[in-house]
């Protein structure tokens, strides 16, 4: 949508909320920090979702989580009392499937070797792409005499890596072997590159850290799908065909959500119910600027009562 | 030993070999590419080892391999017909034990969490350092509901990471949890940072690649022990007390062996029976220069027949 203003517009009044809502047809929504914290849904969020949909707005929930298929993510939304269908969810695993199918025209006779969980396998299979690896290689432990036994597999057209709690050396060695064969030219795709993720008692190594092993061994950069990377937004538009000038990304983190929208040239709304603070957004040294700032996504429900 | 000549001296004649040998009391020897290729011992090597020892020279075999203890490496030497005792072998696992004991004065009431194989555990235990992790965590698979269950362990004073064919997410998550606790201040040590290693049918991800996961997640640099890093040579001198000006590193790779000696300020002999070529060594753009170049380590045996 061309040049965006460099100073974020702070939305404080119901009039400003209404004017903001009127500017857009589609809202891309980050989950944790925008809709909920862990399993606690934030104030006004259910009402805002309801209000926006009743006013004809399309809501798409955008997540870097690749371990669950959209079908399983829908169940999480249901548990938390937010209505969502598979079509309303845009996950990094689904985006990867869209990328392979729509953008790479992944050949029908090739397979994807997956270092990851069922979310990736289910989404790839759902668009007709055959997979191998993943849970098939869970618990397969190599010994030092096995190195000669890992062989090239010409059927592998891509290696897709996401978070995998069953990561093991066998998976790394296979993925490395397939990707290190330059003649075969297999694509190397990460669902996302978050280096850590939050859990109830602290943070843990995330997809970006697990995949650093392969990147280091291969000395080769993967295509990285998830926020804040542009391929995720390219895949979004290739799948949803919404008008970018009427699409707004809503998120709590400057370095992922807001950067994601900014890199893709769409408007962004930063909420203050998550990780990044207003002070960080307004810091003159901060290169990533949201278009709009609001206290919380739940605030927007106040428009319906005005 | 101060400034070394920038142009390598090519040793071609028996007189030059003799003059070279006379300059040194101790030779540090890389293994693969210098002594043998895989299980094939190179020409003249057994005779050269014999000749040098009979002339009062000390030979120390230097390896980044951390998976085997020196006791087990001795068995490999025996199988290949080269006589060696544990005292003649300086491995990255043993160097790490020397570093923790001699340089860090590792506290007696602390333990080391090991991501690695028995070589590290055996060498640490041999110098009286208690360990945990390693094979105890082989095959321990976490689930997504286990994240709350990994707890801080105040007894952990260091995390040592080497090659581990049984690497799994549990090990990474534990190592990350211990190292990410800044108050605890646990040391973070890699036995070596080779990104790949050669195997019979190709190369595979090595220690440096496996540990890239932790480095990426922690955003923290480890102390790296093995060649070409200087701590390995510091530990060598702290353990062997040889005269650096009478010590020469012999190796086939410019980027590991020769750089190792050069960084430590000792003389280096490059052999042409391994990875790096004479052309690479003489390239004006090449920043790493050996002091001497010889066709092969086995050449030196010719001195005894002269």
Automatic annotation (TrEMBL), chains A, B:
It holds the Pfam family Hydrolase_6. Divalent metal ions. Mg(2+) is the most effective. The active site is at residues 30, 32. SUPFAM superfamilies: HAD-like (SSF56784). Its EC number is 3.1.3.41. Substrate binds at residue 227. Its cofactor is Mg(2+). PANTHER family: 4-NITROPHENYLPHOSPHATASE-RELATED, HALOACID DEHALOGENASE-LIKE HYDROLASE DOMAIN-CONTAINING PROTEIN 2. This is 4-nitrophenylphosphatase. It comes from Podila minutissima. The lineage of its organism: Eukaryota, Fungi, Fungi incertae sedis, Mucoromycota, Mortierellomycotina.
């Amino acid at each position: 949508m061309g040049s965006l203003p460099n100073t974020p517009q702070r939305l404080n009044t119901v009039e400003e909320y209404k004017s903001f809502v009127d500017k857009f047809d589609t809202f891309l929504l980050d989950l944790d920090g925008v809709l909920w914290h862990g399993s606690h849904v934030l104030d006004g969020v259910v009402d805002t979702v309801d209000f926006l949909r009743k006013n004809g707005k399309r809501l798409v929930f955008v997540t870097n989580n690749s371990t669950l298929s959209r079908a399983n993510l829908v169940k999480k939304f249901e548990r938390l009392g937010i209505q969502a269908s598979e079509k309303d969810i845009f996950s990094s695993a689904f985006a990867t499937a869209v990328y392979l199918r729509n953008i790479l025209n992944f050949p029908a006779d090739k397979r994807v070797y997956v270092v990851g969980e069922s979310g990736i396998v289910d989404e790839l299979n759902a668009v007709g792409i055959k997979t191998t690896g993943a849970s098939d290689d869970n618990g397969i432990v190599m010994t030092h005499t096995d190195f000669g036994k890992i062989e090239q597999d010409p059927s592998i057209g891509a290696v897709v890596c996401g978070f995998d709690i069953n990561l093991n050396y066998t998976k790394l060695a296979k993925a490395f072997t397939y990707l290190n064969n330059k003649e075969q030219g297999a694509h190397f795709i990460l669902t996302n590159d978050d280096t850590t993720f939050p859990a109830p008692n602290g943070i843990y190594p995330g997809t970006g850290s697990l995949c650093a092993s392969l990147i280091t061994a291969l000395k080769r950069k993967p295509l990285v799908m998830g926020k804040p990377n542009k391929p995720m937004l390219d895949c979004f538009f290739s799948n949803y065909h919404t008008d970018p000038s009427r699409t707004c990304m809503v998120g709590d983190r400057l370095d992922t959500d807001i950067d994601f929208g900014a890199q893709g040239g769409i408007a962004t709304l930063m909420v203050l119910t998550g990780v990044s603070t207003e002070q960080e957004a307004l810091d003159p040294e901060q290169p990533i600027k949201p278009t709009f700032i609001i206290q919380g996504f739940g605030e927007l429900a106040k428009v319906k009562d005005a």
